[in-house]
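step=predict obj=Enoyl reductase (ER) domain-containing protein n=370
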Amino acid sequence: MTKAALNQNELRALRKLTGEPEVISSSSIQSSTIMSSSTCEAVSSMPVPDAPDNGVLVKITHAGACYLEGQTRNRRYTPQFPGNEVAGTIHEVGNNLPNANFTVGDRVMVMPDEDSINTGYAEYVPVDDVSRVLQIPNKVPLEVAAMLPGDALKAYAAVNCAAPHVEKLRKVKSTVNILVIGGSSLGLWSVKLAKYMMGRNCNNVRLFVADNSIDRLLTAQDHGCHDIIHWNEEDHEQYIVERTLDSCRGGVDVIIDYVGTNRTMQRCLKVLNREGLILVGGNKPCETSISLSTLAAKQQSIVGVPRGNINQLIELLNAVEGKQVEIPAYKVFPVEDANHIFEEICECRITERAVFRFGSQSSGHLVDNH
């Protein structure tokens, strides 16, 4: 079995992110934050897995910095990789793969499934089901392609789900207000995708973004939302509700809640208009109390945000290739800086989308497409 090509700093970063004990030299004991109980030689190379007989082995070159929405509020994170947002090249094709459309070196991205969402960092990802592997057009950079199967696809699915309800309300209302809760990557993608999917002639549709971080809200404002609403969790609840209603004059018709806590749900119900729709996309367990009789009397609906499917991912990829969708601002960082970057994200010092790059390349850079 061959060994991975990452350098020692990159390997050390991957081990830290997965919680693996780091094997270190005695000279670095004091500066290390994660270590094994004994001191040994420097980090050794990770083994490269074999390609599944009916699948492919993907060598990861770029990965989105995935974490659960709301973790920045708690100043903690749980990395999610690979599976959520990865892109790279075909390293090996399985021996029994029939009618293989893949060759070594092809640029690809991987659609996540339930088994791959919470696995640890790795340089190589074996994929059994090649229907989840999409080839990347030459016009789409690998760092952009890496973002599409995760937050971009979820936002695309959410906006798709909201669009019919928005169109119905547009026929009977002078103004339709949409509120996106969460100003991180999901919120930024939602702003850009709503503009693309609802067209430029939707002058009577206003999109607002709410978040507890001023920095993220300013970034969302730069991306073209109608207005931003500061949900400072230290403020009195009624004050936050009144501030929201004051900003969204006429109340809120559609809410996409990417945080999905009891507090955000109760707040949503207080600002939601009659015949309003709430799309819930939180990724952590939450219990809340809802009056079904009130919900029915107001003809309101609560729907879960779908993860998105492979057909929607293909549609999204085609729209990105054709430059029909503006890509939210993002920064590319070397993977050995991953732990520091997550700390920066949690402190809201990085509000753009963060993408990790594998391999010995230049330092991080910002891409702002809006």
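step=describe
The chain has nine helices and 14 strands.
step=end
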